[in-house]
Amino acid sequence: MNLSFFVVLSLSGVFLSALISFISAKGQGHRAVVTLLALSTGLGAFSSAAFLLSGQSQLTITQSAWLFGTPFVLSVLSALFFFLLNTVACLASVYAMKYVEQYTEVYNVRVLDGLMAIFVLGMQGVLLAGTPFGFLVFWEIMSLSSFFLVMADKEAASVRAALFYLIMTHLGAGAILAGFMILSNGSLLESFTRLAILAQHLPPSTLFGVFLLFLFGFGSKAGLVPFHVWLPEAHPQAPSHISALMSGVMLKMALYGFLVMTFTVLPIGSSTAALIVIALGLLSAVYGVIYAVIERDVKRVLAFSSIENMGIIFTMLGVAMLTQSQGMSAFSHVALGAALLFAIAHAFFKSGLFMGAGVMVHAAHSRSLEVMGGLSKRMPAFSGAMLILALAAAALPPFSAFMAEWTFVQNLVANLSTMSPFIQGVLVLVLVTMALVGGLALFAMIKLFGIGFLAEPRSEHVAHAKAPGKLIAIPIYLLAACSVLVGLLAPAILRTIGYGDLTVNYDLHTNIVLGGGSMNPGKLLALLVATFFLVLLLRRVLSNVKHEREYHTWDCGQPITPGMEFTATAFSASIRFFFRVITRTKKNVITTPIIASNPWIASRTFSLELRQIWYDDLYVPIQNACLWTSTQVRKLQNGVIQFYIALIFIALVVTLAIAL
């Protein structure tokens, strides 16, 4: 089987779908474009899966003369992310067939489809490029196309979010470019293998500086705190299938770049670099999950949840770097495998949740959880899929994220006694923080599902909501199924991506190694299902006698209305109060007298403003400093020719003084 041909065919199909979209007549060709995109990305997913199962370590695809001879190469790591990208893109294309048709008056469909194809092509190129030059070219294609996709609806909030995203992504791209230039001595056409050789001859201080550049460049794209401020602004504004691609797979491009640079190109660094990664990872996880709990915008909840998820992944990578620098390569290997397994899980459940959020927003005509509710009665199958995805995001067994976190935690606890006191202290902090984050993540997902799907509808739109069409629902169902399958097949997945030593074979099954023991995901699922049915059976047998008469719920003679239900704001009040120093919430109560002569009879409107501490205390001062500096520099433009001649003379004198 010529896998190189299939990969090239996938790339060509994605490019062709973009071309067809832009040259087609307005309003025509939407189904054809997204169908071709779905087929092309499906072929890409098939070819990368076949490569992973073949046992090969590297596959040269082709060499591009247009990119100065840049080779396109598929390795085990890039093939894993290539599979995730193309699988999610294929399902997002199917989802877009019907979803985009619901918003033809909002979006320019022709441009939206074309930009989506270019976005996917850019991410494919990032994973395949074998030189820094090719990597940066496709990185820019990915960034610029997603910039235009964020403001696809042309609303003021979307344009603002897109410009914010553009600034942050190009600051990050500049840092990555600087890192490549230092490593390659200015030659961006060197291969990554050659960069690894050149890095061996650089002094430690230079390597540490390069590491910091890559950490900022890739960390800002991954949404690590404090470089995250663009993410909760940009992801919610994009169309839902684009949000799924941005959160589910674009963040993985940053993860892939960081993995390649840190674990392949740069030599093993000091523990200082690892501690910085751990600190940013834990900070991102805690900050992200707190805001996921208190947010009321369903897509912002998921955006902050992505910050939390990426924080957990980078924490695992930081632990892998720390233990590797201390000579504990065995546990470093475990942490790296757990991080990759979590990344796989996140690609599926977060993409599904964002697509599901699109259904919720369409039903409620709003992104606010405060106007939702009661969707489970109107969309039972869809609600079941969203429940599975929410449980997977909460890292509960037997879902995919749980397998990754449990593998990491159990092996960490089992090896803790063999480590130095310093490493023990760091890892105990990691354990405690991950426990806190896990509890809050469960709280956030309960709020998302409970407020959004249960109880009675809080608006007329939701009360008359209908189940989504098959083309919208099937991708969500498949992503929910993938979240379950990744958990059940976690041992097989680890073996396929080169972490077979984290598994142990028995006669009829394969277990994940957990410290001194092991766990079989299939048996865990069977135990959970058996426990559920046992409790249900005991409930039927022991307490099926009715001692009360049934009657509708009432409130002192008053009928129950949706206004009496818990809101998302009320549900998260305790967490908001506990973390009030971080959340910076501001309550506003507006009192309007109903009768001017009687101030006691009045209507009151309550609003809660959520602020970000990083935005207020870091980015706003930087913005003000830039504005002040530019104002001062502008004073030089006074139009006096004598002043300009004086400046030229001073510059000439300074230059000669330095040169001589």
Structure description:
The chain is mainly alpha-helical. Among the domains are: 579-609, no CATH class; 613-659. 70% of the residues lie in helices and 8% in strands. The chain is built from 26 helices and 9 strands. It has a 3-stranded antiparallel beta sheet. The longest helix has 36 residues, at 329-364. The model has no long low-confidence stretch (mean pLDDT 87).
For this entry, give a set of tags:
two-stranded antiparallel ribbon, 660 residues, mainly alpha, single chain
Task: Give the secondary structure arrangement, pairings included.
Blueprint: H1 3-23, H2 30-54, E1 58-64, E2 70-75, H3 76-99, H4 109-128, H5 132-150, H6 156-184, H7 192-199, H8 204-222, H9 231-237, H10 240-265, H11 271-294, H12 298-325, H13 329-364, H14 375-378, H15 380-393, H16 400-415, H17 421-453, H18 460-463, H19 470-488, H20 490-496, E3 503-505, E4 510-514, E5 517-519, H21 521-542, E6 554-555, E7 558-559, H22 568-571, H23 573-578, H24 580-583, E8 586-595, E9 598-609, H25 613-634, H26 641-659
Antiparallel strand pairs: 1-2, 3-4, 4-5, 6-7, 8-9
Helix pairs in contact: 1-2, 1-4, 2-3, 2-4, 3-4, 3-10, 3-13, 3-19, 4-5, 4-10, 5-6, 6-8, 6-9, 8-10, 9-12, 10-12, 10-13, 11-12, 11-17, 12-13, 12-17, 13-15, 13-16, 13-19, 15-17, 15-19, 16-19
Query: In which range does the helix fraction lie?
Result: 55-70%
Inertia-based shape? globular
Give the strand line-up of the largest sheet: 3-4-5
Oligomer: single chain
- The count of β-strands is 9
Gap between N and C termini: 66 Å
- Biggest pleated-sheet summary: 3 strands, antiparallel
Low-confidence stretches: none
Strand % is 5-15%
What is the SS-derived class?
Answer: mainly alpha
Question: Compute the gyration radius: what is it?
Answer: 27 Å
Q: Overall pLDDT, averaged?
A: 87
* Count of DSSP H/I helices: 26
